[in-house]
Amino acid sequence: MRFSLIILGCDKNTVDSERYLAALLDHGAERARRVEDAEVIVINTCGFIDAAKKESIDAIVEAARMKSDGACQAVVAVGCMVERHKDELLAAIPEVDLFLGASETEQLVPALIDRGLLGEAESLHPGVRTYAGDTPFVRYLKVSEGCDHTCAFCAIPLMRGKHRSFSTEEIVREAQLLELQGAREVNLVAQDLAHFGRDRQDGARLPELLEALTRETSIPWFRSMYLYSAGITPRLLEVIAREPRILPYLDMPMQHASDAVLERMRRPERQRTIREKVARFREAVPGLAIRTTCIVGFPGETDADFAQLLDFVREIQFERVGVFTYSPQEGTRAAALVDDVPESLKRARLEELQEVQRHITAERYESRIGQTARVLVERSAHGGTSASGRLPWQADDIDGVTWLDVDVPAGAFAEVEVTEVVDDYDFRARVIAVHAAPAVAPVARRALPMVGASMGSFGR
């Protein structure tokens, strides 16, 4: 069976998709070079916001069209959007052969076996994954599933369920497998990374997990993605400040700075507490980079509310800010509110906030000129394009890249001097020294021993 896997949505979806890839390959399937050549097309959907839903539906419809126009024999849609809207999708797109929600995706391989499309194979170790991108050097490691927070705008708990932390042993074992596959940077991801371990009885929280990962692997960089500020403790900050392999980087969603809007959003923080915590975080971890996200156009957001948000962003000086316009999601508390901010005003506010942050980021980045730092090289020079990588304060795919003045092999680390800011979010740098990339060791796809592990614990 030749298959193609279309991955949409967040980094958590990427982790799930890499497990699907490994399981399909382990059962004798082959990845098609082009989606048009695939006999089975699997789409891992996202249902977070309206734009993501539209992208998912468009991908499903296009794949269904290939059943009549190409080699495709079956189309499978999985993931978050299917979890929320399976009944509507069944009625609207009957050409799809199988819909599996985020809580059902362990059924993917058995369903394809039942249809005679896959052969039997031994069970995979749950941490075995096949990289879905171009190079294996930057990988994502999911430490928990689901979310217990009750933010009014968010449908994630409806799609992913309650928060469940994986065991430290499981996570460390998967990190070791990623290291064998060549991982040089591992990004820890969850709906709220700081919530890790609160539902378990073993006493391990995020600081202990980070210590275990640095103790039991040799992976050079660990990055923490998406932490609620309420869970960022002095103990966590101490570990980040002490351990050089844990990057001084926090992806901390704020969502707004008007107390009135934050209350309607059912967010736990207020402007004063966010201000105080950011100051403590920066004092505790020298050179800390903080990225945040904001939603504009939430029901009831006034001009004064938005002005507070602008003023707060100017005051706090985050390294980066991701901005989204509000869209109501069925089943959330906010869906019962009147969506009273016109779409044109939402868009104008998004663009204004992005422009304010663009100048802030440029100023903060200008202050980096002349600094020396380590860069992880992701792409060597090719086709007239310089080698490029990322500095510690540049997260994969969201924070820009650093262009190097000489060619360096992908996967290597280089000591560099930052020389210039280009295109607002990128740097140029002069290479001072290079640390060679290690050889990528093959990883067996068959079952590997680990006490207590199951595909269900990772995949749901």
Structural features:
460 residues, Rossmann fold, pyruvate-formate lyase- activating enzyme, OB fold (Dihydrolipoamide Acetyltransferase, E2P), 6-stranded parallel beta sheet, disordered C terminus
Could you explain the architecture of this structure?
This protein has about 450 residues and is of the alpha/beta class. It has three domains: about 1-115, Methylthiotransferase, N-terminal domain (Rossmann fold), CATH 3.40.50.12160; about 140-365, pyruvate-formate lyase- activating enzyme, CATH 3.80.30.20; about 370-435, Nucleic acid-binding proteins (OB fold (Dihydrolipoamide Acetyltransferase, E2P)). It contains 13 helices and 18 strands. It has helices at about 10-25, 50-70, 80-90, 110-115, 155-160, 170-180, 205-215, 235-240, 260-265, 270-285, 305-315, 345-365, 455-460; strands at about 1-5, 30, 40-45, 75-80, 100, 140, 145, 165, 185-190, 220-225, 245-250, 290-295, 320-325, 370-380, 390, 400-405, 415-420, 425-435. The chain has a six-stranded parallel beta sheet with strand order 6-9-10-11-12-13. Strands 2-1-3-4-5 form a five-stranded parallel beta sheet, with helices on both faces. The longest helix has 24 residues, at about 345-365. Mean pLDDT is about 85; it is low at about 440-460.
- Stretches where pLDDT is under 50 for at least 5 consecutive residues are 440-460
Q: Name the beta content range.
A: 15-25%
Indicate how many domains the architecture comprises.
3
Oligomer: single chain
Number of strands: 18
The CATH topology annotation of the largest domain reads as: pyruvate-formate lyase- activating enzyme
Rg calculated over all Cα atoms: 22 Å
Query: Roughly what percent helix?
Result: 25-40%
Strand order of the biggest β-sheet:
6-9-10-11-12-13
